[in-house]
Amino acid sequence: MKKMKTIINIKTDAETKKKAQELANELGVPLSTVINVYLRQFIRTREFSFSLAYSMSPKLEKIIAEAERDIAEDKNLSPTFTKADEAINWLKNAKG
Questions:
Q1: Among 9, 34, 76, 81, which is disulfide-ready with 87 (CB 3.0 to 4.6 Å)?
Q2: How confident is the model at residue 96, as a pLDDT?
Q3: Domain map of the chain by residue range?
């Protein structure tokens, strides 16, 4: 027996739809296939999950990479302070 297809209308913001379609296209599948996979998984497992973990932006990745290079090369680093006054004085006298 052939399964009958149906239409589901969902609301999402335009940017989410655009990015999801672009990613699905990159993977070579229609967005409807991605959604159907998620729906079948939801039915099979009776659960859904989402992550609140943020991905770093390319700008942040660049900043962190620069900081890691500075640490490896021992440059652009402050000394260790034991008191807040020492840190404040160092910052006031630092060449910027």
A1: 81
A2: 55
A3: 14-45, 58-93
